[in-house]
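Record pair follows.
FIRST:
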Amino acid sequence: MMSMTHSIKSTRSMAPESATLARLSVVLALLAVCGQEVAAHGVSGKDAVYLQGLQGRAIVPLMYLGAKHMVTGYDHLLFLVGVIFFLYKLKDVVQYVTLFTIGHSATLLLGVLGGVRANPYLIDAIIGFSVAYKAFDNMDGFKRIFGFQPNTRAAVLVFGLFHGFGLATKLQEFALSPNGLVANIVSFNVGVEVGQALALTAVLLGLTYWRTTPGFVRHAFTTNAVVMACGFLLVGYQLSGYVLSGS
């Protein structure tokens, strides 16, 4: 994988039009993230009302909610985009996504069923940091600046744990009925995997097409810089929420 990331070093000297595109992309991306309401990442509206009144097993509805949460979870998707950005082989994509899945499934179940709690603002701040971390890794930042390369697989697994806790904190906001809780949470987790597969398929198709064009190598560095900026914006947003909430 690392040999693939070296190809973006040639993008350091950007043409004027590329620099303009970079600035415009950053502005648009940051505006898009800022425009998201907190509820877009959590569970709100009719979904929240449904969860509050849920009694007994609801396997299909909970699978739907899990898939919806993943598809609309911009922080999870940004991280996964970073993970697969330079993965050209399907077996590598499956390996990394499996590590991420193991991580977030473990802490989702542990958080909700095991009653393990954490401050949601701090967890979401770490999730935002994971986005920035992976983009920086894709830019070959660790080797060029610090002279070493962290274990990418281990990082994906560890950050997967925090992403799962992020999912758990959204469900912990509700007084979920213990009747059928295990089946419902497992169903929610299965739905998350379905939503993740759908989102990743769309992203992978787009990346595969983009890689056939000259613009991929030319704008890969810029794209990851935008993703990293979004990650740090998420960190700042969540830490601000933590301070203002008086947690």
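SECOND:
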Amino acid sequence: MKIERVTDTVHMVTGTNVNWALVTDGDAVTVIDAGYPNDGADLLASLNAIGRTPHDVQAVLLTHAHLDHMGGIPTLLAKHPVPVLTGATEVAHAHRDYEEQITPPQMLRLCLHRPGITWVAQTLRAVLPHAKMSVPSAAPVPFGEALDLPGSPIPVSTPGHTSGHTAYVLDAAGVLLTGDALVTAHPLLPGRPRPQFLPSFFSENETQMELSLRALSELQADVIIPGHGPVAHGDMGRIVRNLSG
């Protein structure tokens, strides 16, 4: 686990090849995403590392219901039940009324190459035996309205990676949490860290992802906390233009 202080009130935590964020207001905390199922202990440890406890958490905001982003939620809820909020479409995904997730055959094909073998092994260690987990308490959150939570996060609809993917903007901090709508690095992506899409087999609709980026380009945020990879800095409009071009 690695913790990076992004602003006075925002920390990014990196678990098993995935990030989550802790947004504070005094002692109170908003958790945004939660890592893999077996990152749950690190989620609790990350709260302790910034001087907070599970009882300080006001809510968990979920960008999307892939196992690497919602996996640690049950560990937190076992210590302190709090609301789990995400976009309305993604609620059904978190409940596992439907599933949009990389399939075992797709994972098997990745094992033809060394980076794929490494990633699959790390992923299985981070998931098993919780591959069938869900978050039945997940509830919908309205888009475009600041939530009465630490950081006043504003949910932004960004479908494409999953059907109900949601990003969150922290206006006062100038921070955008993109989840997997936009990442900066991943074990299966070549080259240096930079704003980019995940490999296509991870996402449901890349065309929709590109359309969602247009909404992000209009936000007044110059710090990006992605679902995977390091923090990025820069004007969102320029970042989106460079990616699209």
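COMMENT: The mean pLDDT is 96.
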